[in-house]
Amino acid sequence: MTDQVAERRGTEKLLIVDADVHVSDTPAALAPYCALPWRKSLEALAQTPARYLDIPGFAPSLKLDPPIPGGHAGRSVRTAAEMRAGLDALDIAVGILFPDNLLLFAPIPQIEYATALAEAYNRWLVEEWLQTEPGLYGALLACPQNPEASAREIARYAGHEKIVAVYLPTAGVNPLWGARKYDPILAAAQAAGLPVALHSVTLVSPAFPCQLDQFENHFARQVLSHSFAMQANLVSLMHTGVPARYPELKIVFTEAGVAWVPYMMWRLDKYHQEYRRMVPFLEKRPSEYMKERMWFATQPVEEPDDPADLVATIGLYDGADRTIFASDWPHHDFDHPKAILKLPLGAETKRKIMGENALALFNIPAPDRESAVG
Amino acid sequence: MAEHLIGPAAEFPPGTHRVVRVRSLEVGVFNVAGRYYALPNVCTHQFGPLCEGTVNGTTACDAATGWRFAWVREGEIVTCPWHGLEFDITTGRCLANPRVRLRSYPVTVEDGQVKLIL
Ligand code: FES
Predict the structure, then answer these.
(1) In terms of DSSP H, where are the helices of chain A?
(2) Chain A interface disruption, residue of B61, B76, B77, B85, most A CBs within 10 A
(3) What angle separates helix A260-275 from helix A286-293, to the nearest 10 degrees?
(4) Is the separation of the CB atoms in B30 and B92 below 8 Å?
(5) pLDDT (average), residues A38-43
(6) A107, A134, A199, A258: which has the highest count of C-beta atoms within 10 A?
(7) Any CB–CB contact under 8 A between B96 and chain A?
């Protein structure tokens, strides 16, 4: 690419690491990687037309809305080469891979099936996505339905050079991730040196945030679901002392933007000072744990009329160090890197948010090729 | 610096505290296990009458307690009656945020009399 093109894109010669991109994980793709008898279930599901984020027994969801009249088509990425090309077009050097359909993994009730499905996804991820293309790294799918097996799975992949995080499926998870039944997963992630990444998706379910069915349209559900899920899970992790009980554990919050962070930081601090006796394991203020070992991915980044307002917001939570760029490619509300690069942030802050923070957090070696070069 | 007589130590036993007024200043004086401490009767939070709160202990839960709740520091913690912020009487520090620290005043006992030095 010429400098002029890079300049027009606004990406300049900057290393861009993307904390959240999505691979197309259909039942047909995963079936060969799944243990029997559950492979038979996936083979059967493969016979029915796959609908994105709406596959009974795989991505269970109560889809209430009609397709948007005249709305834009969805996108999915089916191969590592396709992903590499897609990220190249966005000048993104490094991407951390998350699933599509298995964003709805947590509501699956059958424990043995869920366990086998998580193992199949992880096998498939490593085999099909992390072998050939440079700059693609994976997040292991944790299995909240079976924390002990999930902990063993994390230990098995510990040290794999392309596995850099544990994805905690957050949509429809019940109870939320601070519940003590998940301790084995958190302990295993800490022992493996892998950050855990919370990622939600819009769904109508009896789990938190529930009763989203009362809204007339997806617009409302989309506005509330991710952000409430992140806020509620942050509180859940805090209220059982996870950051104190797992003092090395790094926690990443994705797909809820960043403006909720200072609000929750202040709110947690406010009630911590009143109710400290109920959470005495928190030896520091909640905001201190957040500023030490929690990271917040940008997408879908807030777009106030005055971009300086967003920059000020990022400053409120020490965001130069806490924020990591995410595009959510190829999803409908993905952010182009320019959404961040156009902000009136200092050059060093841009470098950190766009790449350096995530490289350090996920312990990824700096790639030779810089995104906008070549 | 001036001394202000609080009263006979014999009438101010361990485990008790009182709020005294000196000029325009309100000060809480505490007897914690035989040692006297004095703190301003103004909470750092929203200026509530901190020293009119109860004095007792607090909870702990960490590796040292096997991550089980324990009751600790009986008699060393004052809790503000307005919103419940806890302060360590012996240091003036807020338990939730130790960077916040009340000033403290010296207290002496001479000839059986408790005196506050301001
Ligand atoms: S004024 Fe003391 S706790 Fe609020």
Answers:
(1) 3-9, 27-30, 38-47, 80-89, 111-124, 147-157, 183-192, 218-239, 242-245, 260-275, 286-293, 307-316, 319-322, 338-341, 347-351, 357-361
(2) B61
(3) 140
(4) no
(5) 98
(6) A199
(7) yes
Does the beta-carbon distance from B97 to A285 stay under 8 Å?
A: yes
Of B67, B85, B96, nearest to A285 by CB-CB distance is B96
**Cα(A123) to centroid of ligand 1, in Å?**
54
**CATH number among 3.30.200.20, 3.90.180.10, 2.160.10.10, 3.20.20.140, domain A3-55+73-362:** 3.20.20.140
- Cα–Cα distance for residue pair A230/A330, rounded to 1 Å: 21
From A239, A3, A14, A207, select the one nearest A105 (Cα to Cα): A207
Taking the C-alpha atoms of residue A295 and residue B42, their distance in angstroms, rounded to an integer, is 37
Tokens of A326: 């995410």
User: Residue A169: what residue type?
Assistant: P
Are the C-beta atoms of residues A255 and A228 closer than 8 Å to each other? no
Dihedrals φ, ψ of A54, to 5°? -160, 70
HEC per residue, B47-111? CCCHHHCEEEEEEECCHHHCCCCEEEEEEEEEECCCCCCEEECCCCEECCCCCCECCCECEEEEC
**CA nearest neighbour of A27 among A99, A81, A107:** A99
- Cβ–Cβ contact B32 with A under 8 A: no
Strands lying side by side in the sheet with B113-117: B3-8, B113-117, B107-110
Between CA A190 and CA A364, with CA A116 as vertex, the angle to 5 degrees is: 35
Q: Quote the tokens at residue A62.
A: 């109560």
Q: What is the pLDDT of residues A50-83, one digit of tens each?
A: 788 899 999 998 889 888 899 888 899 999 999 9
pLDDT bucket at A373, cuts 50 / 70 / 90:
very low
Sort A114 into a burial class: Cβ within 10 Å, 0-12 / 13-18 / 19+: buried
CA A282 to chain centre: 25
Q: B84 and A244: CB-CB below 8 Å?
A: no
pLDDT at A67: 86
Helix axis angle, A147-157 to A111-124, nearest 10°: 10
Residue B76 touches partner A, C-beta closer than 8 Å: no
